[in-house]
Amino acid sequence: MRQLYTVAHECGHIFLHNAPPGITLPSHVMELEAESYAHQAFREHGMELPRFLSRWGRSYVGSWVEKDRAAGIAIDPRAEAYANGTRSPYEMLRKVPRTWLIHKADPNAPRIAIPHPKQGSMRTLLDESGDILKSVASSFIYGSAAAYIGLKILNIWVPMPGLFEGARADPRWALLPIVITAGLLWANAVMLWRTIRR
At residue 9, what are phi and psi to the nearest 5 degrees? Predict the structure, then answer.
């Protein structure tokens, strides 16, 4: 139960704090929101959060309030109220997953419009170029690994200085380019499939 509670808390961070304005919030506010998210997620899925975990969460948020206060950061009164037990973890959050039925998002929370990149914009082209480079690099790594494994299986791996001598002495070296090519083709197929699935 403690591990599931920790996972729910971290999911709250991922959901609420991976973009503005959440990513710019003080640490004690982030922890307050993550705690509220964990409590609400448990209730949303029909589970009861043990009281000792709820008490631990309040003291945890309180520790972040003290850290931020010591650092000269203005303290949000909601976090302080939560830490001293006068604020419920079930107060409305800025946003909640669309699939939630019990808990709703705060209608007064600020909404941030995320602009979509224009079609064919330089940023889009740069992003696509970066994805292609990542795919090529990954293909090279995966292909090299596949080729190495193939060579190990064929039992023809010898020290690199003897590569050409080995090719003349042992015709199995003729399989080297075939194995490497097959490995690279396999890796490219995997990367292409992953790109299509995204």
Answer: -60, -45
Does 98 fall in a domain?
no
Whether residue 113 is contained in a domain is answered as: no
Tokens at residue 61, please? 């948020």
Q: Which domain holds residue 28?
A: 2-83
pLDDT tens by residue, the chain, 198 residues: 999 999 999 999 999 998 888 888 999 999 999 999 999 999 999 999 999 999 999 999 999 999 999 999 999 999 999 999 999 999 999 999 999 999 998 888 765 443 344 444 444 555 566 666 676 676 667 666 766 666 666 555 554 444 445 445 555 556 666 777 777 777 777 766 665 555
Three-state secondary structure along the chain?
CHHHHHHHHHHHHHHHCCCCCHHHCCHHHHHHHHHHHHHHHHHHCCCCCCHHHHHHHHHHHHHHHHHHHHCCCCCCHHHHHHHCCCCCCCCCECCCCCCCCCCCECCCCCCCCCCCCCCCCHHHHHHHHHHHHHHHHHHHHHHHHHHHHHHHHHCCCCCHHHHHHHHHHCHHHHHHHHHHHHHHHHHHHHHHHHHHHC
Q: How far apart are CA 30 and CA 110, in angstroms?
A: 16
Is residue 101 situated within a structural domain?
A: no
